[in-house]
Amino acid sequence: MKIPFSDYALGAGVATDLVNTSALVRRSTGEMLVDPTALDRFLSEYEIPVDTATPGRRLTEEDLEQVLALRKELRELLESDSEDQVAEGANALVRRSGVGTSLERDTEGLWQWYVSTTPEASLAEELAAMVGTGLLGVLRTLNHDRIRHCASPVCDGMFVDTSKAGRRRYCMPDLCGNRLNVAKHRARRLAASGSDGTAEGGGTGQGAGRRTTAGPADPPDAAGLRD
Fold it and tell me: Which of 41, 145, 137 is nearest to 90 (CA)?
C-alpha cells in the first residue's frame, strides 16, 4: 500500500471517522463496528483505500479486534495536550508497517512523496500507517490545535480539522450541529412560554397559556437522525 504523504487530509479523515464509530460518540445508535461485516461496511462507506479490504477477502474477528484496539489507541493520542506526544505516537503508528518513504510520480505525472507499507501488513497496520501519516502532515502543515473535541455539549466525539479556514466545530456537522440547534430551539420555547404557561415577560396576550392543535409541531428529535 502506498500512502501519499502530502495528502494529510486522507489520513486525518480516516482518524476522525474511526474514532467516532464508538458507542461513546454514537449514543443514539450505539457501537458501529459490532462485527467484521460492519467493519467491512465502514471501510466501503467511507471509501477507505486499504489493500487488505479488497473484494473477495473476508474480514475476520481478529481484524475487528485489532482495529478496535487501534481505535482506542488513536483516541488517547488525539486527546493528548502535548504536540510532541502526538508526533511521537503518529511516528510509531507509521513505523508499525511502514517500510520508508519513496518519491514517485502520481497519476498526473507529478512527483509525490509516498509512505509504503509491507505486503503482509494487516488491516489495522495499514490503517495505523494511514492515520499516522495524516496526523504528521497536519502537525507539519497546520497545527496541533486542529485536533479538537466536538463543540456540542452532548457529544464526546473528536475530529481533525483540515479545512482551509480551520473553523470546524463538530465531529459530525450534520448530526451534532442539528442536535445543538434543536436543543437551543427548545430552550428558547421554554423561556418564552414561562413555567406557568404565560408569555415571556408575564404577559397574557392572545393565545398565551394555551396551545391549539393547529399550532406548529415540535422539531424532530435529532437523536433519531442517522449518525
Answer: 137
**Cα Rg for the chain, rounded, in angstroms?**
23
Mean pLDDT, the chain, integer? 81
Residues 135, 10: contact at Cβ < 8 Å? no
pLDDT at 73: 97
DSSP letters, 89-103, are HHHHHHHTTEEEEEE
pLDDT (tens digit, 9 = 90+) per residue, 16-26? 999 999 998 88
As to burial, measured by CB atoms within 10 angstroms (0-12 exposed, 13-18 middle, 19+ buried), residue 226 is exposed
Q: What does the block give as the cell for 110?
A: 507529478
Rounded CA-CA distance 124/59 in Å is 11
> Are the C-beta atoms of residues 19 and 74 closer than 8 Å to each other?
yes
pTM for the structure as a whole: 0.75
Amino acid of residue 54: T
Nearest Cα to 98, choosing from 71, 126, 76?
126
Per-residue pLDDT tens over the stretch 55-112: 567 899 999 999 999 999 999 999 999 999 999 999 999 999 988 889 999 889 999 9
pLDDT digits (tens, 9 = 90+) for 175-189: 786 655 555 545 566
**What value, to the nearest 5°, has the Cα angle with vertex 67 and ends 80 and 107?**
90
20: CB partners within 8 A, 6+ apart: 26, 157, 158, 159, 171, 172
C-alpha cell recorded at residue 151? 463543540
